[in-house]
Amino acid sequence: MSVTQGGLVVGGQFSDPQDKPVGKLQVVAGRVELIRGGLAWPGATGSFVCEGDIIKTAEDGSTAILFVDGTTFNLGSNSSIAIDAFDPAETAPGRSSVRVIRGEVGFLPGRKVREGQLEVETPSAAIRGTGVAALASGLAALFILCLVEEANAASEEIVIFDFDDVTVKDLQHGTFEVVTKGQNPQVFIVDDPGHTLVLHPRGSGFSIEVVANTRAQMLDFQSAYKSAFDIYSRGSQDPFFQLFQRTAGGLGSGGSIEFNQLPVFTALLNIGPQSGPVPPPFIYHVEAKAGDAGAPPLPITGLPTVTVLPISRFQIGEVNFSQNIIPHVANPTYETFVSVTVSNIPAGYSFRVGTETTLRTGTTLTFTAADLSAGITVITPASGVTETHLDVYVTVLGLGGLRNSDVVSLPLTLDQDPTGKVEWHGGIGNWEDPSKWSTSFVPLPTEDAVIPVSSTPGGTVYVTSSTPVSLNSLRLDNGVTLEVAASSFGINAADANPLSNNGGTIKVDSGASFSVGNNAHPGQLVLNAGTIEAAGGSITFISANVSNTGTMEVIDGSITLMSTAVTNSGLIRIDAPTLPMSSVLELQNSTIDSGNLINHSLIKVTSGASNSIHDVGTFSSDGTLQVTGNGTVLLLSNETLNDAGGHIQVDANATLNLTNVTIAGGELTGSGQINVTGNSTTTTLNGSTDAVTIDTGTAVTLQTGTTLKLDGTIQGGGEISVAGASAIVADGTVGVPINAALLANNLLLTLSGTANLIVTQLQGDLTATSLSGTLNVTTADNTADNTISITTGSGATTITGTAGATRDTVSINAASLLAASTLALHGGDDFSVTGLQGTLTDDGTGALTVVTANADTDTTDAIAITTGSGATTITGTAGATRDTVSINAAALLAASTLALHGGDDFSVTGLQGTLTDDGTGSLTVVTANADTDTTDAISITTGSGATTITGTAGATRDAVSVNASALLATNSLTLHGGDNFTVTHLTANLTDDGTGDLNVTTDDVASLSITTGSGTNTINAQALTSGHTLTLGGSAAASITLGGGNLTASADTGNLTVTATSGNSTIITGSGADTITAGAGADTLTGGAGADTFIFKTLADSLASAFDTITDFTSGTDHFGVTQLPTSLNATSTAGTGNLATDLGNVLDSVTLLANGAAEVTINGGTDAGTYLVINAGTAGYHSATDAVIKLQNGATVHTGDFVVA
């Protein structure tokens, strides 16, 4: 293509022959503009730049411009420069000038700058070389970075960063001068690569600030090449130069520097030897491969190298591999390290980059510059390594793009033995000083370092470098100190005894770390008879067995045990921190056994299922013991935590197991699992001195076979949970509930002690025989067999039955419950109580069954029971004496039955339903007050004992039915009150002084006495057989029906209506106006003093063959009741023959005894002598088969007025 206007450069051609390129855009990223002749066009990689051009980058743009003399400019975002003048001729006498307009611009000076022929102009100052001829070799160059705000900025500053490529021989560097602008120019000489200059505008002038560069910036790469072994022995020096550093005010009013905007140093791959004779370093040049494009306009002054130093086959486990991969390139001006690719990796090797949790494995791996910066760890096989080689090549980014080196075969391992012991001979000094060691080298990772007392008596060996230290083992003698003030200090533990501290002190300061052991060789022995102290730093034991007879102490630092067992006969102490929780002992799948443990800060268990602290002699903790992490488990066994104010925190998904542990005071918190474990062991929460608090949301859970002892005050919003058959011994004040939801059906929780306890969600069984405090139990729905068994203690007990889809049956053994203690029942479950000797109250809706205690002494116990609304059964177990069982049945529904059994005496009040009693004791019943207009039906079946029933009438009288079939004839039934009573199967004497009606049906008994009340009385005594007598007393009217039995009612003053239905009855009534109906059979009737009526409506019931006898008929007072009045009444007499029917027939013809008439016949002599009243049945004359014959025993004369129609 061609240029049509403005001298625009297109496709590498020029529209104006005078436009001569002085450089080109070597790298373009984002939006970049070239402005030439007032016209702007997009810059692209490879575009040429000419004198007079302006190059601008947008906010997303950056570019690198390579000038023909080797000067390189790098523009960051929002930056611009102007090429005011540039003479590419090497011999041109004139000066060239590049003006920095704004932004972030860095440049590496080429020949023109160093010889003073090119000035770099900024709004505030000019930078130019001094033209020192000695520097023309090109091996030394100064990198300068200018940060320039807009030219009219109110406060502009220039920051010049000074980095130098040093030579191998004399470390010469370039010398440059900075000349400020303004009325009073100032000149500053930049001649020291170890410092950075910062210029601050101050009025009409500038002030200067000189800042020292870091040690890393000044690292001598060429010296590293000269002695790679020495580099390794000093512990993996950081190979990277920092391209720039931020200084005070160095970024002006908001500028920023991005790493990818500037050339990046990269270096070498270094796999260093670990022990043995030092092999020569392997040095390989990384050259451009054939076909690589984009070679720079100037030759690269040096080639990248890869230096490989083999490691020993004895280096096993986890190895810090970052020190073995140290990337460099020969000429950082033009090349950037990108990656190292390693092939032919043997099986069993893996690599970890930084803190990545996923290991990198495979036969070929590529590590980027970022990977190397993060750090690389190689994990060798546990079985050890064999001699092997790797195939390695590196990738660099040059001015022509990416290019790979040739692949070389480099040894990874070398079959050499360790060199063994390296002793410190330097007295007091720094670990990093090779001259202090017996080998004149700092100990290698496979070597055993010894710090003997003879060389540092009472002195200190300091580790002050940031370079990591790696050893095979370390021995520290009595009286010496190793202080790790910086760096990471690692003992890899390839041998059996990696650390022996024989009375010395190991101190790890803030920012430093100290580690012993590796996972590849677990179980290595660590001996500490001195002091190991984390004084702000971190100490880690990995897969080790630590024998501590000295002191392990944390002061504002941390000790971490990873898969480590500590046998402690000394002291482990976590001191009170200066900041909260900054002193930490951390366990990761580790154990601490025996010795003394003092925690004033934090013991943190973070991972693993087999952590334990056990058999510690003294465990004092006023700090925090925290168990955290998913699946983390800590076993605390055979311990006593003495200090109050301590804090045990078990986070979600973590577990603390307590076996034979005493916790004296403090707080338990967290939503994790706190278990009491260990069959036949006892764990104690002792709040005697200071309360033990179980926080809200926290549970202490008892596992099978364990015992938890609670002393003193146990408080908080948490709970004690029961997950297996276990026991709780509680004395003092227990303010947390016992949750038995996890206790499976038929498993037993045992409670004892003097405390008051609350148990919730019980579906298993509970026994509290030895508990003297109160007990409050709430059941859960037991879906397995619907049966829950509870044995109470001696204290007051409350049980709430929580009914589910079906009612559970809660069996309660109250034998230990004192008579003075109350058993209170609630809820919807069915309750079955045995051994009751005190008071029971039930306001539940389920059934209640009670068996009272066996009163095996001569004492009559008073037992009080208040029923619920459900059916209730009570068995009174009588001993030498009968107990008195008082039952309040007011809540018992009318549809529910109260059943009584046994030998105790029962007293029931409030009855409004059904009561059955088959016991032998006495029964006293008071019915409920029927306070409505409803007539309630109450049914009572008595036992065999004396029974007293009071019917409490309200607005209406209740109907009380009494079945007295079991009531012994020798006992009695007594009725009171205003209710109406119906008594059946009566064989015992009955006394009624009530006002209600009485209806009695007797069974056959030789003698029976009934005293009626003031109501209407009806007595059916037909069951009485011949010769059996009913004795009746009272003053109210009564209706009595007899069968073959007798009635004696001479003391009764009421009006009696007596009906004899059959048999030869003797009926004696009292002073009332009685009505007596004689039935079939020869009855003897005595009416008493009143105006009595003898009913003979059925004449055939009193024939001559079985005539009735009236003993006390009084004419004019008493009457005969007949169906019709006699038509006549005649009187006659006759001599007796001894045959009554014959005698009567002889004198009573049709004239003497008219039809339906009557006649009074006196028979003189014979066995049938006496006075007889004959009533004709309708046929004149006497007929023995139809006419009634009534003997008037007192010989009374009958008149016609003595007959009444009945």
Strand content: 35-45%
The total count of strands amounts to: 110
CATH topology of the domain at 21-149 and 171-249: Jelly Rolls
Stretches where pLDDT is under 50 for at least 5 consecutive residues are: 1-17, 131-143, 149-175, 191-196, 211-309, 415-419
Q: Using only CA atoms, what is the Rg?
A: 60 Å
Shape: elongated
The level 1 CATH classification of the domain at 21-149 and 171-249 is Mainly Beta
**Amino-to-carboxy terminus distance:** 155 Å
Largest β sheet strand count, sense and barrel closure: 71 strands, mixed
The computed structural class is: mainly beta
Percent helix? under 10%
Mean pLDDT: 78
Alpha plus pi helix count = 5
Going by CATH, the architecture of the domain at 21-149 and 171-249 would be Sandwich
Any overview of this molecule?
- Among the domains are: 21-149 and 171-249, Jelly Rolls (Sandwich); 423-607; 997-1090, no CATH class; 1095-1205, no CATH class.
- 2% of the residues lie in helices and 45% in strands.
- The strands form eight sheets. It has a 71-stranded mixed sheet that branches. It has a 15-stranded mixed sheet that branches. The protein has a nine-stranded parallel sheet with strand order 32-34-37-40-43-46-49-52-55, with no helix packed on it.
- β17 and β18 form a beta hairpin.
- It starts with 20 loop residues before the first strand and ends with a strand.
